[in-house]
Structures are given as structure tokens and as C-alpha cells.
Amino acid sequence: MSNKNFTDTIALLKDLTNKLNDSSTSMEDSIELFKQASSLIKSAKTELETIEGEVKK
Q: Is the dihedral of CA 38, 41, 46, 49 positive or negative?
């Protein structure tokens, strides 16, 4: 994940969060949005850990 992809991931997470907070979002859609967000968070965390390791070197 490059810096641009990381930035895009954060923007997408913000969008998903807004949709999850929208009371008009159905339960089924909320579940799918939550799954997508969880996957994105995991990817972003892995990227940050990789960067942190490189910085420590």
C-alpha cells in the first residue's frame, strides 16, 4: 500500500463510517459496510506497522 493508497484507504474508511452512522442504512448494508471497514482497517494497520519498522531501522 503506497502513501496514496493509504490516504485513499483513510478517505474510504471515513465514507464507510458516515454511511454506518446514517440511520437510513439498513442492517444488512451496515453489516457489509462493517466487514469492508474491518478489512480496510486491518490493511492500514499492517501498512503502518511496516512503516514503523522501517523508521526504527
A: negative
Q: What pLDDT, in 10s, does the model give residues 26-50?
A: 999 999 999 999 999 998 898 889 8
Backbone φ and ψ of 51, nearest 5°: -65, -45
> Residue 30 to residues 4, 45, 52, 57: CA-CA distances in angstroms?
27, 22, 32, 41
Angle at 14 between CA 16 and CA 45, to 5 degrees: 95
Q: Tell me the whole-structure pTM to 2 decimals.
A: 0.77
Q: Residue 56, class by beta-carbon neighbours within 10 Å (0-12 exposed, 13-18 middle, 19+ buried)? A: exposed
DSSP conformation letters of 17-35? HHHHH-TTS-HHHHHHHHH
